[in-house]
Design brief:
Largest sheet: 7 strands, antiparallel
Helix content: under 10%
Distance between the termini: 15 Å
Order of helices and strands: EEEEEEEEEEEEE
Structural class: mainly beta
Number of strands: 13
């Protein structure tokens, strides 16, 4: 699902970057963006489309997606295409985060779990 904040894919949220890629970020060979509690994973599809994954020194993952987008898949959420607006501040650059849910009874936010 595409949201105003980015692309939700189960408990993973792929957010358009509002800052440039940190200079300390290192390119990593990684296709799994996150593991869920059920043993399933959010995986970048090997579809031949350009996508580079970087990991910053704080552990945050960054994606640099090519003009044709990039597929992501998960056993429970199916396949989605990560695309971007060419007029964005940093076209094709995204951070990978976790969606949060708020428990009003406990008065706390926590990561969504797949």
């Amino acid at each position: 699902m595409k949201t105003r904040a980015g692309f939700g894919h189960g408990d993973v949220l792929i957010i358009p970057a509002t800052t440039p890629l940190p200079p300390t970020a290192k390119r990593v060979e990684r296709s799994i963006l996150a593991h869920g509690e059920t043993g399933h994973a959010h995986v970048l599809v090997a579809d031949g489309l350009a996508c580079e994954v970087y990991e910053a020194s704080d552990g945050v993952l960054w994606l640099l997606v090519g003009a044709d987008g990039k597929g992501i898949t998960h056993e429970e959420h199916g396949r989605r295409q990560i695309t971007y607006d060419a007029a964005a501040a940093y076209p094709g650059l995204f951070t990978v985060g976790r969606q949060q849910e708020y428990d009003h009874f406990a008065e706390e936010a926590r990561p969504v779990r797949d």
